[in-house]
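Deliverable D4.2, example record:
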Amino acid sequence: MAEFDYDLFTIGAGSGGVRASRMAAAFGARVAVAEDKRLGGTCVNVGCIPKKLLVYASHYGTDFADAEAYGWNVGPRSFDWARLIANKDREITRLNGVYQGILEKNGVEILNGTARVVDPHTVEIDGRRITARYLLIATGSLPYVPPGPGCELAITSNEIFGLAERPERILIVGGGYIAVEFAGILHGMGSHVTQIYRGNLFLRGFDRDVRTVLAEEMQKQGIDLRFGVNLTNIEKRGAALAVTLDDGSVLEVDQVLAATGRLPNTQGLGLEGAGVKLNAAGAVLVDEYSCSSVPSIYAVGDVTDRINLTPVAIHEGAAVATTLFGGAPVKPDHSDVPSAVFSHPNVGTVGLTEDEARERYGEVVIFCTRFRPLKHTLTGRGETTMMKLVVDRASDRVVGVHMVGPDAGEIVQGFAVAVKCKATKAQFDATIGIHPTAAEELVTMRDPLPPVELAGSE
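Output generated by the structure prediction step:
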């Protein structure tokens, strides 16, 4: 008789948990995964995928308007939120089935229910106790709503995907990527959007030029951005919500979206009772191999609060499976991870910000350009694109690439390979650009910014 029921028991069937589970099973391990919601986790159900579908939808308004400048006669048009949400739901259901198929094809047993850790080798799910040689915690994160008067009236990114109607007026509270993305989405669909943030500039942690340019572009579009203010109270006023801000102003809106951060989803899991150490925010503390303070318990993804991105969770999950069952210990690599913000316009970034590079290398050279995209020479829109290279002067390595503009994520993904391969500015310069494209600007910038024009630290 086997010592344990399974070799690996995974709690959470999101991106990281699914990748680790199916790879472990492919290595020959006996694997089960528990999920108390829909397969695919946050990304598939209430994150990356539905959000990107809504981003696509939100661009059609300006696309229709721009078409007229290119000779197209565009007739009357209207937007049907309910139809979009129904179509989105159908696609998410399809993806849930894809994840189920991936697990079943690899021989992973799927258990529907809430699992709780009992001890280093035991979980309990729906009253049933199950043992495993290793446990993997992949429960992700949950939206955080700051406590305060009327906070229960706010919605989060979990609920916004299921609203029966598009809010005509919405207040978005927060300054992270979720906040700026939904500001662009809903504005593009015709909502009046006010976004507030307690700091003096949103997207903390991004390059300052990225943050500044995005704020300017969003304000050009008519999004009401208010920095240095916070929400103090929400109360019902008939069918609307009356929101009081700490500058004394009162807004009347249809919805308040709290996009104020996320917390690791560890509450009620029983981890501390099993000896697993958590940080103050509730994240599982792990070593460089994603192992917790308990040798038999590992954790990947947002629940560890390292780099909270779906591809990173997948990478970490693959590394754990290989480490435990593939015969080759593998550390996940968290350096030079590219990312995108699907705001209006998009943000793409990889490597170090200017301030980070100055702190690490001392002397850096900055190349930056801002220009009107070719498309808008006919439409007349005032939208601009910004591209920036951060170069270590001593080695000539390009250590940061940052962009604000259409398709920034698609463009920066390719340049992330160059950054990962430690390409130099000379090698960028030796690369022939594709003309006419926006991306060619990243290999044709020759004149560095003089010191007086460099962005300073916040």
